[in-house]
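Workshop exercise sheet. Pairs work together: one partner reads the sequence aloud, the other fills in the structure field after running the prediction. Swap roles for the next sheet.
Pair: D.N. / O.F.
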Amino acid sequence: MTAALAGYDDHLPREFYARDALVVARALVGTYLVHGHRVARIVETEAYRGPKDLACHARAGVTKRTRTLYGPAGHAYVFLIYGMYDCFNVVCLGEGKGHAVLIRGVEPVLGVPEDVRSDGPGRLARALDITRADNGADLVSSTHLYLAPRTKRPRIAVSARVGVAYAGEIAEAPWRFLDPTSRHVSRPPPRSIGLGAVTSRR
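Structure field:
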């Protein structure tokens, strides 16, 4: 660990991740994503809640692609979309559950090039140099890729997830959480969404 990372070396514990993705998605806003010497504050997340969630990869069951998603909580699930973008997710709840949180936006803190955007899941993965080589990484024990606790309580806005109109009855479920004050959110929050202060640091 370098001196620059000294304030971001505390790892979120396993029990943080061993909860429903809906709980973890909200709790992750304001925490720090660390990869190598790059650090960013998480400002936008989405919850994906297992095989009954039609927008979740878990709906396909256990496959080569989803094996990590169905694994133990507290691991990285990184997948490719559109043949060009890697997306970083956090596995939640427990083995066999298929819950995950997609990190949709981060605010650069350390080591991220100034001219690189980090709003949107594909952009943030590139900004932090996260690739499918990181798929399956243990976020609790790794010193290379992990999440550190938030340092202050953020205000959190809630809305429907982005681009999941095919998800049937839950397409409009309020499973997206974001910091409405950050310019690194992938899409501006609509006026009608709810706002609330986080009451727990974990």
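Discussion prompt: Confidence is low (pLDDT under 50) at residues 196-202. What would you look at next?
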